[in-house]
Amino acid sequence: METPAFVARVEAATKTYGTGAGRVNALDGVSLGIEAGRFTAIMGPSGSGKSTLMHVMAGLDTVTSGRVFLGDTEITSLGDAELTVLRRRRIGFVFQSFNLVPTLDVRANIRLPFEIDGRKPTVEQQDWIDRLVDSLGLAGRLTHRPHELSGGQQQRVAIARALATRPDLIFADEPTGNLDSRTGREVLTILREAAAGYGQSIAMVTHDPVAASFADTTVFLADGRIAAQRDRASAEDISAFMLGMEAHA
């Protein structure tokens, strides 16, 4: 059996906040790889360490001990300037709150990662953006600003922006948290198709079993440790597993 290729990984990652009696281990010796070209959900109750894990893997926070890699690049001890460039060029983000720039129209929001990096899309990259715009149903909205869009449309713009530079990995932080259930399912389907159809690597932090059921793999965290890792499962199975975890906590 082939060893899976990891687009990001942590080795014995520990993240500690506070000292003495107030000390909290947000991550407690976590070793985990995010497989390339797959949609991975990171699940757990509030305080389980899932957001801390995402922040550490994305280079938004540092580990107290252990090692962090993006592809073959160890980012554990990179400085802020190096991490900023690395995130800009190799990582995409989709947030619960969309994080679109309100003064920019849809076209400019999608092209923002290129503008921040001081470059224009190549012809090939613009073709890719045009494909994204068409497939996400945004062609008729390119001159609209965020306040003129529904929540679902805003999240589609955020996904297009994250995919525009074809990053090594997209982190999605509760991407359906501000959406109704039907629109949320549409957004999750888009993320699943980005992995299945385009080979995009996606890591999604969520507490929602329905959202996790769209992923290829679900990683369960509890008290800063990995409790289990499962291949695609139904929302009912995921929910039952979570309830079992909480009962044994």
Task: Please describe what this structure looks like.
The protein has 249 residues and is an alpha/beta fold. The chain has a single domain (36-59, 80-248), classed as Rossmann fold, CATH 3.40.50. The chain is 37% helix and 26% strand. It is built from 8 helices and 10 strands. The chain has a 6-stranded mixed sheet with strand order 6-7-8-3-9-10, sandwiched between helices. Strands 2-1-4-5 form a 4-stranded antiparallel sheet, covered by helices on one side. Strand 1 (6-17) and strand 2 form a beta hairpin. Helix 3 runs parallel beside helix 5. It is globular, with a radius of gyration of 18 Å. The mean pLDDT is 92. One of its GO terms (cellular component) is membrane protein complex. GO terms for molecular function: ATP binding; ATP hydrolysis activity; transmembrane transporter activity. It comes from Leifsonia sp. NPDC080035. Pfam families: ABC_tran. InterPro entries: AAA+_ATPase, ABC_transporter-like_ATP-bd, ABC_transporter-like_CS, ABC_transpr_LolD-like, MacB-like_ATP-bd, P-loop_NTPase.
Task: Please tag this protein with its features.
8 helices, ABC transporter ATP-binding protein, 37% helix, four-stranded antiparallel beta sheet, Rossmann fold, alpha/beta, ABC_transporter-like_ATP-bd, single chain, 249 residues, MacB-like_ATP-bd, ATP binding, transmembrane transporter activity
**Strand line-up in the sheet with most strands:** 6-7-8-3-9-10
Q: Number of helix segments?
A: 8
The beta-strand count equals 10
Secondary-structure element order, as H and E?
A: EEEHEEHEHHHEHEHEEH
What integer is the average pLDDT? 92
